Amino acid sequence: MTLTTHHASVNDTDIAYWHERSERATKVLVCVHGWPETKRIFSRVVQPFCDAGFDVVVPDLRGFGESGLAPDGFYDVVSHARDIEALVFDHLGYQSVVLVGGDLGGPVIQEMALRNPSRVERMVLFNSPLPMDKERMAGMRTRPPIEVMDYFIRQGTDADALVSELDSEDKRADYIAAFYSTRLWAHPGAFNTEDIAWHVEPFRDAQKLRASFTNYESAFDATKRSEKPLYGRNTVTPTLILFGTSDHVIYPDFDLMAATVFDIHDGPIRIENCGHFVPWEAAEEFIFRTVGFCRK
Q: Where does this protein have coiled-coil stretches (predicted)?
């Protein structure tokens, strides 16, 4: 399937997106990528979702992939959520949606669900940051090993210097490629050399790479946030929880933690031999679980 990229001016920002329609669609799936990803991470699942009877919308977040840089300079969770709300509800005219996301896309769809409880029918969440609840998560492993968090701290507190060090396209590509290979986010062998090159290609651009670090800065610096996110427990949105268990960067007990955040949930479903990038690494199971959940 050849996916056509469309563009919309959303909140003064050029947002690129795929939009595939099914003649028998009764629901729309809005798939939101994370970091270091673009809409390409969902490329294996778009056609099967359409074949199963869903419209599918897959945007590049502002500053990522084929989308433009944001004139206001914000790349935080709320800014991303607002963009997608404007794209799917205002520009495309959908009245309600099913949201799908992991990594950065996870907090974005969680924010959208809390902001629009009557318009978000369901969520499918995988390998994503979660709001912390010390009481409900007592005894769970809520932190990944500190040694895998070096990127988070560097990108969040020293982004300009890091980008200065990555002063060529090849250096930027090599930096991002490690997250698909040696840093053990993905299950070993999930991405071959050609796969990695394709996913890494959008980050060869220095401005795009720098923009992608800004959300990490927002974790340390409130001035990088357009507004405070709602980010918290969700008591109303039915949520399918999927967990690629080979992921070394997310919480070891992500599945158990997520079950405390979403009161109405299916799963958690643990997917073995799969890491951080679930729609790519375990596309068939991802499709099967998502379609089954949406048809309940």
A: none
Q: Domain count for the chain, please give it.
A: 1
Question: What does the pLDDT look like over 115-168, one tens digit per residue?
Answer: 999 999 999 999 999 999 999 999 999 998 888 999 999 999 999 999 999 999
The end-to-end CA distance of the chain, in Å, is: 28
C-beta separation of 12 from 72 below 8 A? yes
Residue 107, preceding bond cis, omega within 30 degrees? no
Smallest CA-to-CA distance from 15 within 61, 58, 73, 55 is with 61
What is the amino acid identity at position 153?
I
We report the CATH number of the domain holding residue 46 as 3.40.50.1820
Range of the domain at 21: 5-142+226-294
195: in domain: no
Give domain status of residue 283, yes or no.
yes
